[in-house]
Request: fold
Amino acid sequence: MAVVAVLYQIVTAEKQTNNNITTSVISKQMSDKSITVALAGNPNAGKTTLFNKLTGARQHVGNYPGITVDHKEGYFNHDGREIVITDLPGTYSLTAYSVEEIVSRDFLTTQRPDVVINIVDASNLERNLYLTTQFLEMGVPLVIALNMMDVAKDRGIEIKFAKLAELLGIPVVPIIARSGKGTDELIRQAIRIADSDKKWIPRDISYGEDLDEVLMEIIAAIEKASFLTERYHARFTAIKYLEHDDQMLTKGQEADQELARQLEQTVGTISDHLLKTMDVYPEAIIADHRYGFIKSIIRQGVMTHKFDTDRLYTSDKIDKVLTNRLLGPLVMLGILFGLYQFTFSWSELPVAWMEGLFSWLGAIVETTLPDGMLKSMVISGVIDGVGGVLGFVPLIMFMFFGIAILEDSGYLARVAFMMDRVFRMFGLHGSSVMPFIVSGGIAGGCAVPGVMATRTLRSPKERMATLLTVPFMNCGAKVPVLVLLIGAFFADHKALYMFLFTMLAWLVALFAAKFLRMTVLKGEATPFVMELPPYRFPTLRGLIIHTWERTWQYIKKAGTVILGISILLWALMTFPGLPQSEQDTFNAARNTITNSYSEAVQREVMDFNDNTDVLSEKALELKNRLKEIEQEESGLTLRNSVAGRIGSFFEPVSVYAGFDWKTNIAMLGGFAAKEVIISTLGTVYSMGDIDVDDADSLGKRLVKDPSWNSVVAVSALIFIMFYAPCFVTVVCIAKEASWKWAFFSMAFNTTFAFFASVLVFQIGNLLG
Amino acid sequence: MTLKELNKKCSCFARKLQKGSISEKCRIHHGPLSESCQAGKIKICKVTGDRKLCARMASLGVLPGEEAELICPQKGSQCLLKIHGGTLSLDQTTSNNIIVQSV
Reply:
């Protein structure tokens, strides 16, 4: 079910990027009286916080510009009215510079919501009103939500919202989205505007004599030919032509080639004239006049500063230190290492409790269920498989909590800024940091949202390079595997090794990106321009919600996909079983051994109770000899099973990397989901060891196994970190790029991982 | 000594240190933003580069004649620019194309 849900999300997301945003089932079910509201604004203005506050939806709120890539829909009731609200991606303008801007603009023009709530950051009014002017030019029914009034007050900024409303001619409602203050009034105003049933009337802003004249000429031509007027107002289309908006030019070409050519010629003439006389393009003049319009409003007593306007805010002062060329990277490394220490040292005890819980469950099943297939499936398939994955929930929770602090405080955006210099050297973009971090750059993410987060990158080649290399990061699914192997073979320096393997993941991903950018993805670099959000104290509620959301995803995955795969793998490892002739041989051997002891000893072994009885020397000897036979039989059954045959098939090749057929089974299972590696190892190494009380933890079992040592562990870690992404990620890559790139990703990653593992294993063996 | 007085004295000392360590060339700067090596107020003279970059900069308020505050000059590399109440991070390619003069 979880896989279906993920695939559904991918398909839905794809539909959205293709600008075919369809009204959701929810809105179809709504009555005619329902109101459709769009929530729009700059990144980090608080849209998602307000959306959560109004709908109660559990959606992630990040402090990174453009985290809301897709539009999200929710609904709620207000005074008996049903309201369907859409959270649009954060944008600075409505010109097609990025995917977010295209998505927002197309939503407004195709869906035509009853009202648009433009959320404006009161502490950064001038920049935020730039988008407002474009909504006014578009003519959408608008209400301004003046958010973060508390932050503005702290900065000594006083805003006369009534005056602003009067000058703009639209309602302005002061709110604090974090606390919900003012949201009731906001919704009342939104309903009032929606009910007023006004037509979309665009606001005329003058762009100077030269442009206004051309604008009138274009508008006349558009109106005469009804050119694109079914979706856009003539003035809006004319402005977009002047701004040289790629998407609008293409639409124009599709609608009327001849008129589009004429309009482009007219715009070309004025562009040449402006370049010659003023050395600027029309879009710069348009932007200048929009900012002029905003200033003319603000200077009419809308905003007053209590303090000196030139003073730097605390956030800027912190940036002087935290983004310093020398200090910045040192602080960043310190913070990331601190995150590891926090995660691994604090989670140790709860992880031990979880292990204890599953051991206890195993013991209960062991004593309750009769011997047979069901008992074997429950212990080897379910408890060892799912338990192994769920045991890491506390660790994952601590990791996500740490990441949420970095995200919500605004520090993660600074990491992107600092890393841009490094990323550029590898043919990537500073904005690639977010997909890398989401995928597990700070171990614990997931490649699926990481691949989706690459949509914020505007350059197709940098996007593709990021998309193909994010699966190299240590996602939340790989972390338990890393923790298991590092804990078992390098127990004394767990945090250090974990940190080193994370650094290795970064290095490999970056060099792989460089390789791709030099070969299959050659091309020019795209500029890195991003607005940094101010530093904010994260709210405990926000941190808890973000941590729980991600942890719950992990738990759900363990309870659905991994449970299914564990049982499937158990079946693959159990069937077809040994041929009857071999079973008879083992039974005969068992009978021979048993009959060689006296009846009293046989009875002692049969009646043996683990908790109360102590065996005599002879009985203990018989028990151990029978156990040896049982293990030999289980081993042979496993080798004869479907999974064993697959593992054995690959063994002649995998042996160069130090993997035997048992490890091969786990690696195959890992393609379904990386967590499955643990559950499969758990199942493989417990097949001959059904007696739970005698069983060591998986880590100890691996250390004791003759086919494992620290060199094999490092080789396995490297293979696990870098081989083919899990199948959900592969599907996601296919949806975001194409199946060709998805198959390329699987082949490229697996080939690289195998050769790297062989190299490590062979060198490790040579060095002894 | 109150905390305010101490802060004032420290700021004064820091300013003196800064003045001593920064060359005359740096203080009166006219050229690409990427070559600015002193934090402080600047005036944007011109935005060059391709059409898309100019348009993007314009929409973010980086326009000729606008005053801004350079927060983190990292000569020859990226920088942080405070303009229209927001803080923009710009890479070297972009800041090479923004011609500024110190105010």
User: Anything to note?
Assistant: Confidence is low (pLDDT under 50) at residues 1-31, 60-68, 687-695 of chain A. Chain A has 34 helices and nine strands. The interface with chain B takes residues 92-93, 95, 97, 123-127, 130, 243-244, 279-281, 283-284, 286-288, 291, 310, 312, 315-316, 319-320, 323-325, 416-417, 420-421, 424, 430, 525, 527-532, 534 of chain A (CB under 8 Å). The beta strands of chain A are 35-41, 72-78, 81-87, 115-121, 142-147, 157-159, 172-174, 303-305, 529-532.
